[in-house]
Design a protein that fits this description.
This protein has helices spanning 21-28, 32-40, 66-86, 101-104, 120-130, 146-153, 165-175, 180-201, 219-223, 226-238, 245-258, 295-315, 362-368, 387-405, 425-432; strands at 8-12, 18-19, 52-54, 64-65, 136-139, 157-162, 278-279, 287-288, 321-325, 344-347, 413-418, 435-443, 456-463. Residues 1-10 and 446-452 have low confidence and may be disordered. It has three domains: 8-77, no CATH class; 90-171 and 315-463, Rossmann fold (3-Layer(aba) Sandwich), CATH 3.40.50.150; 180-311, no CATH class. It is globular, with a radius of gyration of 24 Å. By secondary structure, it is of the alpha/beta class.
Amino acid sequence: MENGEARAAEGSSSARDLLTITDAAALVGKTPSNISYLLQYNRLRKYDSQGRVVQRAPNGGLRVSRQELLSYVEAWNARVRSRMEELRIPDSPIAFSDVPERERTKHVHRLHPYLGKFIPQLVGYFLSRNFGPGQTVVDPFAGSGTTLVEARERGIDSVGVEISEFNVMIARVKLASYDLVRMEKEVLDISRRTADYSSKEFPGTAWERIGRPAKGAGYLETWFAPRSLAEMLHFRDLIPEYEYQDLLKVLLSRTARSCRLVHHYDLATPKRPVTGPYACYKHRGRTCSPVTTVVPRLRFYSADTVRRIKEFDMVRKSAWSLVVEGDSRTAKLEGALVRRPMDGVFTSPPYVGQIDYHEQHRYAYELFGIERRDRLEIGPRSSGKGGRAQYDYAKGIAEALRNISEWLSPRSPVFVVANDRLGLYPGIFDEAGLHLERRFERPVEDRTERDKRPYSETVFLARAA
């Protein structure tokens, strides 16, 4: 028992009530990974094939209680319903509370984490009802490209404008066309070469001792264990040998985000490096340790990246997409593709004082030496939510919408997704020369690891003059 054998705990379950992880996922419309997550973080109890509660089970022998799983899902749904009542939001098709996780993060939408993006189902709902093949939709705050990807899936042409060079890279990687055989070969090859390098350079377990960063250490040396950093730099140095270099950079960045010296329940907004064991929030007090090697996660993300690109390749339609790197307040959209008035906007601008969009991916900017343009962000968290910040925010959003609306056909729909608790958007639309026509209200699921507060957002429909 002390050497990894299954240890029986109090309680048992009928064999007829037991499900494999695969069957449990199918029952509630989730993925096996979702069920494994619930088990790993003690949301569900683990059973062996005999119905005994265990800490571990032999390969293939782990089981889930059907009744406990259904009770957990019902409790979750009740929580969503309670949140909607608290926010005074009626149930509606745009709540998407019943959409399984695997659909919320389908294909390339999860090639890289990105704070503040809206779920693709919301975008798809409005695109499919307001635009069609041969038309062009514009997103002046393109972020990681959600609107553009959903447009491509429907055969709708699209243009995105984005100030962050790294965000532009993510969006272009999602939208790119690949030789799938070559893409898979490159992704798996560079992952294997990095693992081989790691095993040769770091034999034994001495590397697991992290220690505190030296005084004056740079960002990468401070936030990554020595072995992790060496592996990442080796991967980065190999990238020029391959064709799909931006894809490999996005893969490395995704891996780096998960391998920082942080509490693994706080990947979104860590405050300081963690250099030793800690009581884990997700594991309900169990002692965990920070990541000290990127290899296991790199292997997982490599396979996941290949799978997601292949999945998107099967559903993407014939359409063109253009990602413009620039300030949406002043960007000019002239180009070989953009030759006619465009047909509408679907966008989700930054929220007032909510996110520092460059800082959230600092590890990527440091790894690749990418230029930062923080000073051009609209409504950054660093500016707060005071009166001056609100004024600057409203002015910036209005300038962007006014600039983009010059490229639209008359009466084109302008959809803006925003949490407008401060009541700024009616004035923003007036300043931009747009007529506010309608509002759609919807609840929002948890957006960060530990933020469980009720949350809502509005989908505004305005019209160009």
